[in-house]
Amino acid sequence: MGKKVLITGGTGLIGKRLTEILLKKGYNIAYLSRKKKSIPSVQVFEWDVSKGYIEEGALDNVHFLIHLAGAGVADKRWTEERKKVIISSRTDSIQLISEKLKEKGIFPAAFVSASGSSYYGEDTGDVRHTEASPPGNDFLSKVTVLWEKAADSVGALGVRTVKLRTGIVLSKDGGALERMAQPARFGFGAPLGSGKQWMSWIHLDDLCNMYIAGLENDNWHGAYNATTGVATNEELTKAICRALDKPQWLPNVPAFALRIAFGEMANIVLGSSYLINKRVSEETDFIYKFPDLEAALKEIF
Question: By its UniProt entry, which Gene3D superfamilies does this protein fall under (predicted)?
Fold first, then answer.
């Protein structure tokens, strides 16, 4: 019987693909879900974070733990109430697991938690960030710092903990790329704002393989910039149009229009984030399947 991997947020973009790969590698997969549901080849356990409840048996024999749960930061406008949900959905959930693990005396071999490139700030201009760079001081930075602090509560139990600061995930099944590609499919592709803002990217399969590397390799620990390369918003837009064989002729969408439409949330697409994957490159033997942007987009589209 394969080793048990317990995943929070398993039905999301990353979770679904990660599950497919883990199952092929012979792992047993279990999810924590707010509702009992039937998912092929996956054992689903209920939990209710607000009530401090995790279904009996969920944590039994857990060898690896993966934390992907969290309300989408781009799903709704950032009201004060929504901001609280964005934070609590990431932190309270893993705090609960940490408490239950300690209570039951169960200590997985490794724990890998999602984190974000926004750790360094929503808009950091042309500054290059390695894992040693300090955190920013805006909302998304605060979210990510608290997210990682919650993850460290599992590490405090003696569990080897890895945190993957992820940029834009390239996938045909959703996420930021699909939103950018939608207008391009109809010939309306256009850079956002100045188009000069940096966007750190990684192909979904490379990200999933990085999660697995974090689980399986004892030398992985702490925070890593989970990115492959960088491109400006304009470069990425043009590359998407080329991959779709569509023209890119519209002028840039002005920043003020995006701020009117999305409010503070517009910082997600207008902000610049240049990450260097220093620790992955220098401290591990991880090999990227899609190291080139054009090749990654070609595979996706």
Answer: NAD(P)-binding Rossmann-like Domain
